[in-house]
Amino acid sequence: MKDKMIKVLFVCLGNICRSPMAEFVMKQMVAEKGLANKFEIASAATEGYNEMVHEALDYRAADMLRQMKVPFTQHYSRQIRKSDYAKFDYILAMDDNNVRDILNIVGGDKDHKVHRLLDFTQNPRPVKDPWYTGNFDEAYWDIYEGCQAFLDFLNNAKILGTP
Ligand code: 4NP
User: Fold this and answer.
1) Which CATH number do you get for residue 105?
2) Pocket of ligand 1 (CB under 6 A)
3) How close is the Cα of 46 to the center of ligand 1, in Å?
4) pTM for the complete prediction?
5) What SS3 class is residue 119?
6) Is 24 part of any domain?
7) Residue 161: inside a domain, yes or no?
8) What is the per-residue pLDDT across 56-78, written as a single tens digit (0 to 9) for each?
């Protein structure tokens, strides 16, 4: 039987720094493990302004990805929609404000799909917003740790079948 795709939506405030970095880091991680065909991975914002102005990936996030040799494609911010709740299996927020805003937009979390990314790690915490901290290095490594921990969770819970 063909395994069901695991659909993951990373979400932050603007969808130009943290969540697209997470999208591309996770895409690279699953590709390197030969698991790319088992995943659908995307990202979105909680606010709609950047979608309205067709904002692209922040240049500092792009520089960080280039520095870490993470491939990325053209990205434009888009806001999470109510319909995303049914479409995705995991909605992974960066911080507590994101969780609150996601729940408001999608109308609750009856299927327990919404988590903070770093809640899968041994040290649950938010991914601080580099738009404000200026620390894209810290955001990258937090995101890397979170994506690894999330993949470990999927493996340990036997959600990821054998390749
Ligand atoms: P992000 O960072 O949520 O990690 O994409 C931000 C990007 C843009 C803004 C805020 C945070 N903004 O106010 O436009």
Assistant:
1) 3.40.50.2300
2) 12-18, 50, 129, 131
3) 10
4) 0.97
5) helix
6) yes
7) no
8) 999 999 999 999 999 999 999 99
